[in-house]
Amino acid sequence: MNNWRSYLLGFLCIVIVFYEVPSSHTNATGAPSGYSGSVSDLQNTCETCHSNNIVNSLDSNHVLISSELDYLAHYNLGQSYFFAITASSFMLNKFGFQACVENELGEKIGTLVIADAIQTQLVGDGTYITHTQSGSQAIGVSTWVFNWIAPMSQQGDAVLHTSVLFSNNDGTTQGDQVLYESRTFAEPNFGCTDPEAFNFNLDNDLEDGSCLYSLNSETLSLSFQNLTVSGSFGEELAIQLNVHNTSDESLLVHASRMPTQLSTPTNWFCWGACYTPSVSESASSLEISAGSYLDEFSGHLMAGLNPGNYPIEYCFYTENAIDDSICATVTYKVLGDVYGCIDPNALNYNASATVDDLSCILFPTPLWEFSESYGGIHSIALNTDADITINDSNISVGDWIGVFYETDSGLVCAGYTLWLGENVNLTVHGFDPESEQGFLLNDEFIWQVWDASEGVSWPMIATYSPLQPNNQYFQIDGFSSILTMSNINPISSQDFDIPNGWSIFSTYISNLDMNAMTLFEPIVDDLIIVKNNNGEAYIVEYQFNAIGDFVNGQGYLMKTNLAVNLVFNGDYVKPIQFPISLQEGWNMVGYLYTESVHSAIVFEELLDQDLIQIAKDYQGNALIPGWEFNGLGMMNPGEGYQLKVYEQAVLQY
Question: How confident is the model at residue 3 (pLDDT cuts 50, 70, 90)?
């Protein structure tokens, strides 16, 4: 009977193992909580269930933990931080992991947040993060990403514990390798962080409201924690000032008060005795010994019905030195509902309003062209730690952030978000064959921010976290994280210093009216003639214009009777969009770059094809390839150039 039971038990074990093999070697549904290697896990890792094997314990198996916190001295309370755990092995295609965040006492701290629900999942009531079935499969390298929100209160240094499994994928738990890694991130030190305070400590990271300040005269000084006190209707607001005698003899000190607004609510002060609201100066003085102080002064205000800020000045002086008084202005803030528009992006924003009265007048939404693609996805993290600015000021809640790709007809937005001052993952869509829209692989991200308060769409330049697998180029299932983003001041004008006499002129600015007479109107009194390469002319004296409209990419010969300055306003033309057709023989070509570039680079393609006979500027400086001579050198914005070619060609900037 006992043998029968033994055989039956053995058979059942074989059946169980047979049916559990597909998920056992990496726990494909996720590792059970309690195996991260942390203090509270009693340092148990995946090795508890998986045994190591010399063959699989290779030097090529590595674990890398990376985070935005790598660049910071400490974490900040309540802030969200990005983490990536990467396992790499030359020979394997099956991985698993589990991680948690604890303090040094083994207490779970902060909150783990899923950033990639396909690859990761939370277990253990959300205190652990582990792989999913999809997240256990990779070829050589597997990366799991997630966010961690720091605790709202001081709970000690944060330690990320992770146990990573390298599976030999043989259908058992034998012969695998487990690596444990941890990273410690310091908690912030709280204290006075204001260098103006006399108890300032350079080692403090975050302000805790403990700063003490002082004001000084020759004989008296004041010390205080702050000069602002707040409260609501019906509350008595009070503040204390300490008065110090910094002289070497005892002093008799008086006190006075002076409200700076006529509408200030009922207020009074105490100095030895408490005076009625009608008294502005103390009737008697208090004696303060040399080198000592008194803490008997207090100012008071009864908060009224009208919310607002009410400054009151308090002064202290001795009987024999009224001119040497020392004063401090205390601001009493009466809190309460102030109705008005509270949207900072609205035209009629009221900075004092606390309750929205639905009166806000907003700018329209941006006139962006939006993609209708539903192709592959690339995620881009926009965290509150990212420095996103317009003209050196942080963007506001209500602004739009969009990412674009370029088409022949202009920019198309393939992903955007309304900025709410919160962490967000921006979803960018790839090319969709049905709509023929969306990002192509390796297309570079082009950014714009719609400033809702100004009604302006700004082109932006971005920098990316080097910790993420992808940066500024689109990849299917890619992930990037923005570090900084700032506006590019668009080129909207070109300034010309035109010499006296003959010169050759060109511009990289285009506007709605490119008529020669309109463009040169500001210098018409000093302009004699302008000619194009065909000999057609604008003759000022006769108000005759055979040129018509200026063409970007063309050069124009002109003559003035004085050196003059001219400014063109309009839009910058991208050089790549203006190929210049060259006829056999002489041409006058424009210069479309915004910076000076050497002529050997500008004419590189034409020189490689031996098409240039000569190129020269208006001063006669020449490039003569046949003589291997280049006296032309640098080419400059605003200038035009004569170019002689052996046959028809195209100059492409």
Answer: very low
CATH number of 265's domain? 2.60.40.10
Max distance between CA atoms of the chain, in angstroms, equals 125
Q: Which pLDDT band holds residue 27 (cuts at 50, 70, 90)?
A: low
Residues 566 and 603 in one domain: yes
Same domain, 406 and 553: no
Residue 106 domain boundaries: 24-185
Residues 482 and 499 in one domain: no
- CA torsion sign for 449, 452, 453, 457 is positive
CA–CA separation, 383 and 480 (whole Å):
11
**What per-residue confidence (pLDDT) applies to 364?**
67
Tell me, what's the pLDDT at 427? 93
- Interacting residues of 42 by C-beta distance below 8 A, sequence separation 6+: none
Pick from 591, 592, 570, 575: nearest CA to 642: 591
Assess whether pLDDT exceeds 80 at residue 84: yes
**Residue 459 shares a structural domain with residue 570:** no
Q: How many domains does the chain have?
A: 4
Tell me the pTM: 0.37
Strands 158-166 and 95-102, how do they pair? antiparallel
As a whole number of angstroms, the distance between CA 70 and CA 73 comes to 8
- 175 plus 219 within the same structural domain: no
Terminal alpha carbon distance of the chain: 93
Question: Is 472 buried (19+), middle (13-18) or exposed (0-12) by CB count in 10 A?
Answer: middle
Tens-digit pLDDT profile for residues 241-275: 999 999 999 999 999 999 988 889 999 999 999 99
